[in-house]
Design goal:
Elements: H1 5-14, E1 20-24, H2 27-36, E2 44-48, H3 54-60, E3 66-72, H4 77-81, H5 107-113, H6 116-127, H7 132-142, H8 148-158, H9 172-182, H10 185-199, E4 200-210, H11 213-226, E5 247-249, H12 259-264, E6 272-278
Parallel strand pairs: 1-2, 3-4
Antiparallel strand pairs: 4-6, 5-6
Helix pairs in contact: 6-7, 6-9, 7-8, 10-11
Bound molecules: S-adenosylmethionine.
């Protein structure tokens, strides 16, 4: 749901007659979206919840069958830009990074209480950061870390200046890794995609917007598996899996934003849209 930008565009095209259910785990986004969509009356329902709860939330709100499920992964601009949420390495704030600040553990707890190997794993696996070991060691040596500035400084000290990336901030990958871990983002996506498959009507479509390769890879592989009749290893002569395709891939390659769109909205630059149709 985020700032309801897509929701508004969709509602303008499906009303009168159509209805939209918006879900966000962030209570602040839910509140703002309810205000932004008030003019659509009962055609727009906004509920606080997670992607993984899509199945139960849909049923509870009378949306048990849908023609379109759109996932827009990642963070909203409101979350990134609010220093109190702790997502930004450019603004001093508490080490929180929870999309839902009322649930789960903060990034401060992970940073200050995990052992060095677990920290390294999170930063390497979810941040795709090759300096993960040194960063984890520097973090542990400086504990307790209290603010986003403390974390950014630990990363800056851990990576030799000559190896700082040119195209992104030196802290981007570490912040991304920790944020993914705190919010169990990949588990949420996986469960959400599965729930969407059950919720869609035959001929209905699911669309996903990813912002980094871990998200996009998950969607790509989910679509690939679900669009095949057999998922046995290729060397196996006879099918034993009994798997049946449930999706048809509509976008063989992900749709990327145009130059104009990136100029108007630089945060769209890494977005990739994939679409699949329920069989
Ligand atoms: C990129 S923003 C969405 C922007 C929105 N499409 C718009 O048009 O304004 C992503 C939103 O997804 C929410 N989100 C991320 N992971 C979630 C999850 N597992 N369950 C529910 N909401 C989630 C975030 O809180 C954030 O508000």
């Amino acid at each position: 749901m985020g700032q309801a930008g897509h929701a508004r565009q969709i509602l303008e095209r499906i009303t009168p007659g159509g209805r939209l259910l918006g879900i966000d785990r962030d209570p602040a986004a839910v509140e703002a979206a309810r205000v932004a969509l008030a003019r659509f009356g009962p055609a727009a329902v906004v509920v606080q919840g997670r992607f993984s709860e899509l199945g139960s939330i849909s049923v509870q709100n009378g949306f048990d069958k849908a023609d379109l499920v759109l996932f827009d992964f990642g963070l909203s601009s409101n979350q990134i830009d609010d220093p109190k949420r702790g997502f930004s390495f450019q603004r001093e704030g508490p080490l929180d990074m929870r999309m839902d600040p009322t649930a789960g553990v903060t990034v401060a707890k992970i940073i200050n209480e995990s052992d060095v190997r677990e920290l390294e794993r999170i930063i390497r696996e979810y941040g795709e950061e090759r300096w993960a070991r040194r960063i984890a060691q520097f973090i542990v040596a400086r504990r307790p870390l209290r603010t986003t500035g403390d974390l950014a400084q630990a990363v800056e000290a851990a990576i030799p200046k000559a190896a700082w990336p040119r195209d992104i901030n030196v802290s981007t990958r570490t912040f991304q890794g920790l944020r993914i871990a705190v919010n169990n983002e990949l588990g949420e996506i996986e469960a959400g995609l599965r729930a969407a498959l059950t919720t869609l009507n035959p001929g209905g479509r699911m669309a996903t917007i990813s912002f980094h390769s871990l998200e996009d890879r998950l969607v790509k592989s989910f679509f690939n598996v679900e669009s095949k009749d057999c998922i046995c290893p290729p060397q196996q002569p006879v099918c034993t899996c009994g798997h049946r395709a449930t999706l048809r891939i509509v976008t063989r390659r992900p749709v990327r934003p145009s130059e104009e769109e990136i100029a108007a909205n630089p945060r769209a630059r890494s977005a990739r849209l994939r679409v699949a149709e329920k069989l």
